Amino acid sequence: MKVTVLTTSWPKHGSDPGGAFVYRSCEELRDRGARLTIHSLESGVGLADASLEPLGLQLDHQVGGLVSRLSRRPQLVLPVLRRLIRRYPQWKRADRVVCHWAVPFPLLAQAQGVSRDRLRTWCHGSGLRLPGAPWMLGRAHPLAVVADHQRAKVPQRFEAQLSLMPVPIDGEIEPLRRPEKKLIFVGRLVRQKGIDLLPRILDQLPEWKAVVVGDGPLRGQLERDDRIRCLGPLPLPVWRARVGGGVGVCPARSSEGAPLVVDELRLAGIPVVVASVDGLAQRVEHGVDGWVVTGRDPQAWSAAVGSAHASTTWSQSLASQRAHSDGWARFADWVLS
The domain at 182-320 falls in which architecture? Predict the structure, then answer.
């Protein structure tokens, strides 16, 4: 079966966690016998027995630095989309076209002539909140969301073809780690993820340090704080081995889908403190399998961190459900059926 994958996120190198789960989903499809063509916005790591054709490479000479130019000049989006439609007529010849995120690929694929029965859209995070997302999804076709709270954002026309499919985690439960006076943050180092709150929490916690896994525009600012050690972007098995014990913090400012990092930390035996935003609050029952903080008061965060650090028992059961052995098999069945 010929499968075309359209994604805005793809690992740029072997240690890049960005798009890692998209890569993993493509591995599953390949192992099930699919002949894959993967279109990401930018170039990245290859996948054996699959064809990686970055969309941006064909347009870069016309637009000049595709992603950065689009962020500065959004009026270029429509011309770029028109060129994409002309450039990739082969999409409509694929047996399946898998779109990651709600924008912009479902509408593009349908404009290329991809029939609804051959189209699959998997909505991971905040894409459903973008202006015009209900329109960009196009006509009703099989669509999956990663969390229940996303259902309210899905247009009514999709109700009969909507599935709940959290992103699986590859890994096993580890014993609860020895508590250390250390904050642990894993994710993109951008304001949306709330990483700028980390130094303010440390101000309330004398003798505490922090370790940060990830990369982004705020990394330089964090590295100037001698209480914070930045490890850079690392794949899951590596950072789980390196961060040690402590308290994981997820202080995101805006809603998420069903963030992997919350369950990755819990599976690693690390308690979590999360912001009370959609996608995080639904993954954590306060005082049972984590701690939830409303607002951005550093004192409230430090108090919750102290409770997490002092706790000797908390549940890992919800996180373990995402590490079920048939998680990726279910995704492949959904695409190929």
Answer: 3-Layer(aba) Sandwich (3.40)
